[in-house]
Design brief:
By secondary structure, the protein is α+β, with helices and mostly antiparallel strands. It folds into 2 domains: 106 residues, Ubiquitin-like (UB roll), CATH 3.10.20.80; 82 residues, Translation initiation factor 3 (IF-3), C-terminal domain (Translation Initiation Factor IF3). 28% of the residues lie in helices and 25% in strands. The chain has a 6-stranded mixed β-sheet. It has a 4-stranded mixed β-sheet with strand order 5-6-8-7, with helices on one face. The two termini are 24 Å apart.
């Protein structure tokens, strides 16, 4: 609910209209057939825009979905080896590392020492150098072998671009569809609310009909589900 006495208003074309009383901003939104949405409630004064609320939610959800689709985890894929690892096991670890690098992941290769094995840390360094040579066509060593307690590790960055998600992208025809604006958008619960925005729907009275009071502005407490456009 928009409770502040004044707002900095941006119109539907992105033009700044300056600071004005909230009541005036609401009337302007009604006259132009748009909703008044508070997009930056923490500024002084808060910023509100004249826009189609349904389209606003639709575009925001679409952008967030695209961002998630291309987002890659920054965590390492860790591969552990022992100082006395056999050739067969070593080759298996190399093959696994190549698979990770092929997916665009960063990997951390760690030699784990036990007991007094750490006194022969050079064995671990030699293993890691050999490991790096085996995967050189797929990744580059970002951090050289470093001894940390009873383990020695190195970090390798992939030479391949991350693979896109297998989730199919929205077709151009479907992406072009925009949901119809509703005068009173529903509020949906979510485990992770987006930044609070306030909306006051425009309700211009029809000819001969007594003007209805503008409904209280509704707080946007949640994002639209990623797979369903707003208003659907």
């Amino acid at each position: 609910m928009i409770r502040v006495p004044q707002l900095r208003v941006i119109d539907e074309e992105g033009t700044q209209l300056g600071v004005m009383p909230t009541s005036q901003a609401l009337r302007l939104a009604q006259e132009r057939g748009y909703d008044l949405v508070e997009v930056a409630p923490t500024t002084a004064p808060p910023v509100a825009r004249l826009l189609d609320y349904g389209q606003f939610k639709y575009e925001k959800a679409r952008q967030e979905k695209e961002a998630r689709r291309h987002q890659r985890s920054v965590d390492f894929k860790e591969i552990r080896i022992r100082p006395k690892i056999g050739k067969g096991d070593f080759d298996t670890k190399v093959h696994r590392a190549i698979q990770f690098l092929g997916d665009g992941d960063r990997i951390k290769v760690t030699v784990q020492f036990r007991g007094r094995e750490v006194s022969h840390a050079y064995i671990g360094r030699d293993l890691l150098i050999k490991f790096g040579e085996q995967i050189a066509e797929h990744g580059t060593v970002e951090r050289q072998p470093v001894l940390e307690g009873k383990s020695m590790s190195m970090v390798v960055t992939s030479l391949h671009k991350p693979r896109p998600s297998e989730t199919p992208a929205r077709s151009p025809a479907r992406a072009a569809e925009a949901p119809a604006r509703t005068s009173e958008p529903p509020v949906r619960a979510s485990d992770a609310p987006v930044e609070a925005a306030q909306v006051a729907p425009a309700q211009a009275p029809a000819d001969g009909e007594k003007a209805r009071p503008v409904a209280a502005a509704t707080a946007v407490a949640a994002e639209m589900p990623a797979d369903q456009p707003a208003g659907g």
